[in-house]
Amino acid sequence: MTHPILSRIPYLRAFVDERFLEHRRRSSSIAGFASLILAGGIFEYRIFVSHILSWDLLAIITTFAVVKLSLFAWFRFND
Fold first, then answer.
1. Cβ pair 78, 64 in contact under 8 A
2. What angle do CA 57, 55, 71 make, to 5 degrees?
3. pTM of the predicted structure, to 2 decimals
4. Do residues 37 and 29 make contact, with C-beta atoms less than 8 angstroms apart?
5. Could you tell me if 41 and 19 are in contact, meaning their C-beta atoms sit under 8 angstroms apart?
6. pLDDT per residue over 30-55, tens digit each?
7. Are 24 and 42 in contact (CB under 8 A)?
């Protein structure tokens, strides 16, 4: 199955294939989770060591969770 972008832009087929798109998807997912873990670590460090509640980091963590769960639901019911 050809990706929709590849069927609309034929010269991209020489550079982009299904493996490239899968690697891009997986690397983006891993990078997102690594960023979430880092934000969570900094959030907990600031709570336990500095006794400061960082609302900005909590907002980032919450946004990640809401987006991830929303996309899980979307893909589950629309695929």
1. no
2. 55
3. 0.71
4. no
5. no
6. 999 999 999 999 999 999 999 999 99
7. no
DSSP string, 25-78: HHHHHHHHHHHHHHHHHHHHHIIIII----HHHHHHHHHHHHHHHHHHHHHHHH
What lies within 8 Å, CB to CB, of 32 at 6+ separation is: 64
Structure tokens at 57: 């980091």
**57: number of Cβ within 10 Å:** 19
Task: Report pLDDT digits (tens) over 16-26.
Answer: 677 777 888 88
Please identify which residue in the block is written with the tokens 């600031």: 46
Question: 9 versus 16: which is more confidently predicted?
Answer: 16
